[in-house]
Design brief:
The complex is a heterotrimer of chains A (293), B (278) and C (430). Chain A has 293 residues and is mainly α. Chain A is 77% helix and 0% strand. The radius of gyration of chain A is 23 Å and the shape is globular. Chain A starts with a helix and ends with a helix. The mean pLDDT of chain A is 84. In chain B, helix 7 packs antiparallel against helix 10 and helix 10 packs antiparallel against helix 13. Chain B starts with 8 loop residues before the first helix and ends with a helix. Chain C is α/β, with parallel strands linked by helices. Chain C is 49% helix and 13% strand. In chain C, strands 7, 8, 9, 10, 11 and 13 form a six-stranded mixed sheet that branches. In chain C, strands 2-1-3-12-6 form a five-stranded mixed sheet. In chain C, strands 4-5 form a two-stranded antiparallel sheet. In chain C, a hairpin with a 2-residue loop joins strand 4 and strand 5. The N terminus of chain C is likely disordered. Classes of the chains: A mainly alpha (293), B mainly alpha (278), C alpha/beta (430). Chains in contact: A-B, A-C, B-C. The interface between A and B is large, with 95 and 102 residues.
Chain lengths: 293, 278, 430
């Protein structure tokens, strides 16, 4: 009995130990330090760190409407973003698992936006919105290209959404493809023999069987869009008039532009708690829909 | 084997629509490429048009100024080592956490999941404090450690979901045959996880290869800089030197595109193998 | 079999630990070699700066300086413009690898960093600083930094287009500016291109005009901090709004989608006659249309010609010395060399293309280009308005910019805008 227990401990250490150690050093400890700063008025530079209790939290919750606005923007962005990327990703995967002649090339193309990293990607798209769209607008005369892209609240929002979907849909597509390919062929064939239509097969066979992939994809999309920073900074910097400011950007500005590091981390803590609650609910919800093996 | 599927009209229509959609997806790459071979004034004035003359020396200059081979080497080392260790450690943790679903492991998993939503910017100052007290600053291994820490949550999460779908019977059979738990994991479970390895490695490669903020904080020595840091050196306070930044960017993403094309074969293979088990 | 896998595991664990611990050790050695400054061997001065534009010239300077100063090495790091220098500098200090020389802006930025800075009042170059550069880097009567350069802005204008529209006199009052804009418009030329998408253009430079025109800008800002002065009802604020409206009335469409690049491209291609910018745009303009016939106009807010014929000139940034640096004497020596030796002066004017902030350094139009020369001319005639935006509460310019964008978009009127300014100031002041 005793030796079994100790070997269990050894296994735990060997299997879980390495990742936990790195995780603890890089995320947990800095996070706890940040937690401490959230109760201070530290400006990020000086040697003076004064404990201010829950003042920061009080100020955020009562006197900072912009934080609420940023939260609301992030929520809207997340909802629209995850729906669009997942729909597009899934349908790309659905069609690209059909016997198309060009499907390997197409898969690569749809995936390619992922090879450009966040900030640079944003700078390029900003270039496209500003220079490219106006050139296209002149050439085609289409109203769509002549909108004031990134210049007002609406086009700013949809501009970021567009880039976000463009970038992430191909990624989710890969996950959906591997999931759809994992569906045993005979199940689909059996359904076809039974005379089920394409829509019926999609709805009653494929979708339920890719639910595990849906969990993963939803989660990925949520955590990406909630933390969205690079795109936001490089596309609109939160403007015009803070109408497209995400929470991550709001936190960053508070900590580094306004030099209120303590207040910034307090915002981060609030944000973390809220998002943690939302995502754990989401994981619970979709997990319950998966078929347990 | 009987792949002789009927290539019907419906499939053709799908194909055409998908190709058109793909062209739309490629538009930004068109901008990226054509502007990378224009002069500075040309790219700002005629951004959408086909280049009137191809300034290939933009590439040569970008190559020299970024010291591309050096930056490429650094990026490669960081990406490869982080990837291998990250995938391995995460697979091990996920396996243990699923198969030994103790209260502690449940808690740990929840912490991993929660940590994924911490915005990086909010912990970056404490992070450099911790890293410098452990002598991890300004070194490639230090950067790798940071990637292991930041990468573990998502990778464990992905493997966690996958391990659940691996039937227990295979492992049990091996255990009955007297194989140790370690042997079971490395020789039986690990090969089964191949499809998820592919996914995890792609995800982490893209992230690490393109990451800017973390290496910009950790690596300060010019000899250690990675491709994104070298590329950003073209963006000044007022002027963005697009005629150099765009070629550098193209040079930086080509390896990843090649990587993905090469990996695609393995994806298909991995998935086929995954299908065998079912 | 069993054993082998155990060994693999153990070695992997060991590897990761070694990776974490050992790799950095080699680095530590390298570091201490350079940190061992007092011991006679080579001393290294670590410089951490943000001006990407001069990074290449600095590398040349490094070679020259090291050649003429044996025993000193310069380690120069430049932070790319994609990220924010302030954040990078804070991270640097948090990590304990504090640079010996770095950049700090005036006023508010100076206050943030003051307790890290060496007092430079005793340096020999202090007496040569131009007057406009002193205030911003002075705290409690001490000078804490060496001004990097002077920069000036106003309305950069296209002289050829002005001629084409038949404008012979340069406008020096608001009425004249309005008339000139009208003439341009009648000639089918867009008078203004406004880069109002950029927070720094609108929230710093544009709004600064209202502050700089105050009779005593310091007193006004002091008053705002104490609550005795207000935005609403201030005479200069009211007048400034007329100028702001004028640029919008005669501006291109979609000012909120116009970023700095677009703004400069339109201007350099002759698609607009004026744009609110400064001498730093010379490089950008030369890159698109070399030898353009351009100059800088004042930004008048009323009809008093004497009061308005001035450019807005200030010090964008300063070189400072870390007071905890082990090589601070060498760092001071280096800064001193930069502005007193012929070689250093040459770098400032010919290589960096800076408008010098020192009376003892001469620059020519050839060095600086048309715009720099114009700023230099105004500065020599002492026809200057100051940069006050560095005194705004931290982060305020960002908010001001947002409020002004909101006004441009028609989401608020003038009263609302001034009320927004007030709210921002009161919220962010310390």
């Amino acid at each position: 009995m005793k030796s079994k227990k100790s070997s269990g401990l050894l296994q735990q250490l060997v299997f879980v130990g390495p990742s936990t150690i790195f995780f603890a050093i890089i995320i947990v400890i800095p996070f706890l330090l940040g937690l401490y700063y959230s109760f201070t008025n530290w400006n990020g530079v000086s040697g003076q760190v004064t404990w201010v209790g829950i003042d920061n939290f009080k100020q955020i919750l009562t006197k900072d409407p912009d934080f609420g606005k940023a939260f609301w923007f992030t929520v809207r962005f997340t909802v629209v973003g995850i729906i669009l990327t997942n729909l597009l990703g899934f349908f790309l995967a659905y069609f690209l698992t059909k016997p198309l002649k060009t499907r390997n090339v197409l898969r690569t193309i749809f995936f390619m936006p992922n090879v450009i990293g966040g900030l640079l990607l944003g700078f390029i798209w900003q270039f496209i919105f500003v220079k490219g769209f106006s050139a296209l607008g002149e050439a085609t005369g289409w109203h769509f290209f002549n909108l004031p892209w990134l210049g007002d609240a609406t086009t700013g929002f949809w501009g970021i959404i567009m880039v976000f979907v463009w970038q992430t849909a191909g990624y989710l597509m890969v996950i959906y493809i591997s999931s759809i390919n994992n569906i045993p062929k005979d199940i689909i064939e059996a359904a076809e023999i039974d005379g089920a239509s394409k829509m019926q097969i999609l709805k009653s066979v494929i979708v339920p069987l890719v639910m595990p992939a849906v969990t993963v994809c939803l989660f990925l999309a949520i955590s990406w869009s909630f933390k969205m920073f690079d795109l936001n900074l490089s596309l609109t910097k939160g403007g015009p008039f803070r109408s497209t400011e995400s929470v991550a950007l709001n936190i960053y500005n508070e900590a580094f532009q306004n030099n209120r590091y303590g207040l910034g981390t307090a915002k981060a803590i609030i944000f973390f708690v809220v998002v943690a609650i939302i995502t754990s609910l989401q994981v619970k919800l979709t997990k319950s829909k998966e078929v347990e093996s | 084997m009987e792949v002789s599927k009927k290539y019907r009209f419906g499939t053709l229509a799908t194909e055409i629509i998908m190709v058109l959609l793909a062209l739309v997806f490629l538009i930004p790459f068109y901008f990226l490429f054509v502007n990378s071979v224009k002069t500075f004034s040309d790219l700002l004035t005629n951004s959408a048009s086909w280049p009137s003359s191809f300034e290939w020396h933009n590439y040569a200059r970008a190559w020299d100024i970024t010291n591309f081979p050096k930056a490429f080497g650094n990026s490669l080392i960081v990406t490869v080592i982080s990837n291998v260790l990250l995938a391995l450690f995460s697979a091990m943790s996920a396996y243990r956490m699923v198969r030994h679903n103790s209260r502690f492991n449940k808690f740990l998993f929840a912490v991993f999941v929660a940590a994924m939503v911490i915005p990086f910017q909010s912990i970056m100052i404490p992070l450099v404090k911790v890293m410098s007290s452990l002598n991890l600053m300004n070194s490639i291994p230090g950067l790798i450690v940071a990637y292991l820490g930041f990468g573990v949550p998502l990778s464990v999460f992905l493997f966690h979901g996958f391990v659940k779908s691996i039937p227990l019977e295979i492992e049990e059979a091996a255990r009955v045959d007297g194989t140790s738990i370690y042997g079971t994991f490395f020789r039986i479970v690990l090969p089964l996880m191949k499809p998820m390895f592919v996914t995890v490695i792609i995800l982490n490669t893209l992230w690490i290869w393109n990451d800017y903020l973390l290496p910009s904080l950790v690596l300060q020595n010019a000899d250690l800089r990675t491709i994104p840091i070298a590329t950003f050196a073209f963006f000044g306070q007022f002027t963005k030197q697009w005629d150099l930044a765009l070629p550098a960017l193209v040079l930086g993403i080509l390896p990843v595109i090649i990587f993905f094309l090469a990996m695609q074969k393995y994806i298909v293979e991995g998935i086929t193998q995954g299908a065998v088990k079912g | 079999m069993k054993k082998r896998s155990k060994i693999t595991l153990a070695s992997m664990l060991a590897l990761s630990v070694v990776l974490a611990g050992c790799g950095s050790k080699t680095d530590k050695n390298a570091d201490s070699a350079s940190g061992d400054s007092g011991k006679g061997a080579t001393k290294t001065i670590h410089i951490f700066q943000f001006k990407v534009e001069i990074a290449e010239a600095l590398n040349k300077l490094k070679a020259d300086y090291e050649a003429s100063h044996p025993g000193i090495k310069l380690d120069i790091q430049t932070v790319g413009g994609g990220s924010d220098y302030g954040a990078a500098l804070k991270a640097k200090f948090a990590s304990g690898e504090e640079p010996d020389i770095f950049n700090v802006g005036g006023y508010t930025d100076l206050n943030t960093w003051a307790d890290k800075l060496e007092d430079l009042s005793g340096e020999k170059w202090v007496s040569d600083m131009v007057d406009v550069s002193k205030d911003q880097i002075t705290k409690d009567g001490k000078i804490y930094g060496m001004p990097m350069n002077l920069e000036g802005y106003g309305f950069v204008y296209n002289k050829d287009l002005f001629k084409k529209a038949g404008i012979t006199e340069i406008p020096k009052t608001l009425t004249e500016l309005d008339a000139a804009a009208k003439k341009l418009q009648d000639a089918g030329i867009t008078p203004f291109v406004n880069g109002y998408q950029e927070g720094w253009i609108i929230g710093q430079h544009t709004l600064n005009v209202a502050f700089a025109h105050q009779e005593d800008p310091s007193a006004y800002i002091e008053g705002l901090n104490k609550g005795t002065a207000k935005f609403a009802g201030n005479k200069q604020m009211d007048e400034f709004m007329k100028l702001f409206d004028l640029t919008l009335k005669y501006g291109q469409k979609n000012p909120l989608t116009t970023d700095y690049n677009t703004e400069m491209t339109m201007f350099a291609n002759g698609q607009a006659a004026m744009t609110q910018q400064g001498n730093w745009t010379q490089v950008q303009i030369d890159g698109i249309t070399p030898n353009m016939n351009i100059g800088i106009l004042p930004m008048p807010i009323n009809d008093n010609a004497d009061e308005n014929d001035k450019l807005l000139v200030g010090v964008p940034n300063n070189w400072v010395v870390n007071k905890n640096s082990k090589v601070k004497d060498d760092a001071k020596e280096f800064l001193s060399w930069l502005v007193t030796s012929d070689q250093g002066k040459n770098y400032i004017t010919k290589e960096f293309k800076f408008i010098p902030a020192f009376k003892s350094i001469n620059a020519t139009e050839q060095d600086l280009g048309a715009l720099g020369a114009e700023v230099l001319k105004y500065s020599k005639e002492d026809k200057l308005l100051s940069w006050q935006f560095a005194r705004f509460p931290e982060g305020a310019w960002n908010e001001f910019g947002s409020s002004m964008q909101s006004y441009i978009a028609g989401k608020s009127d003038k009263d609302q805008l001034l009320a927004d300014f007030q709210k921002t100031w009161d919220n962010l002041k310390k």
